Amino acid sequence: MTIKSSRGFVAASIVAVVCLLTACDRATVYNHYEQTQSSGWERNDTLVFHLPKLKECGTYKEEVGLRINSEFPFMAIALIVEQEIFPSGETLSDTLYATLTNKRGDVLGRGISLFQYMFDLTTLQLRENDSIQVKIRHNMKREILPGLSDVGIKLRRIK
Fold first, then answer.
1. CB contact set of 124 (below 8 Å; sequence gap of 6+)
2. CA–CA separation, 53 vs 78, rounded Å?
3. For the chain, first and last CA: distance in Å?
4. How crowded is the C-beta side of 96, counted as CA atoms within 13 Å?
5. Distance between CA atoms of 94 and 97, rounded to whole angstroms?
6. How far is the C-alpha of 66 from the C-alpha of 89, rounded, in Å?
7. Averaged pLDDT, 78-97
8. Alpha-carbon span 100 to 148, nearest angstrom
9. What is the DSSP secondary structure assignment for residue 101, as one 8-state letter?
10. What digits encode the pLDDT tens for the residues 92-131?
């Protein structure tokens, strides 16, 4: 092996290791999306997420993710999020108002034809072995909401 090729191998190895280390997000304990109907998300079609038991206690940040295409007719969305924490039985209910475009109509999400958004929902103090059931439904004027393809929940340990 020549010096030039060994330097190239070492450089490529370092880049690969850095990429692997930065790709791992140990703080994220749950990140899952549910697909909505291609014909549109019906108001009474509640999406349910079952977050597994936590391995450690701590402070957790919860976010709602949305994937929306150009058929979405509004500048914002209102979501009702109901949660139950097990085994305590504690229930939480939030209404999330999420702005998707600015006043000029420019999309605030990332993407080209499918736009990705993440919105802070809440911060929770959870114990080891707690699990959460999250239910999300839209609260818009239209009964069937076109252009929203996926809704997700992300839970990260922050302390």
1. 59, 60, 62, 85, 132
2. 28
3. 48
4. 24
5. 10
6. 27
7. 97
8. 12
9. B
10. 999 999 999 999 988 999 998 899 999 999 999 999 999 9
- Which residue in this structure is represented by tokens 């080891």? 128
What's the pLDDT score for residue 18? 44
Spatial distance between the Cα atoms of 55 and 52, rounded to a whole number of angstroms: 9
CA distances for 100 relative to 76, 89, 154, angstroms: 5, 33, 19
69 vs 117: CA distance, rounded Å: 11
Phi-psi region of 4 (alpha: psi -120 to 50; beta: other; left: phi over 0): alpha
Among candidates 137, 151, 122, which has minimal Cα distance to 63? 122
Write out the E strands in 13-145. Answer: 28-35, 41-42, 47-51, 58-69, 76-86, 90-99, 114-126, 131-138, 144-145
Q: What is the distance, to the nearest Å, from the Cα of residue 124 to the centroid of all Cα atoms in its chain?
A: 16
Which structure tokens are listed for 138? 């839209």
Cα(28)–Cα(116) distance, integer angstroms:
18
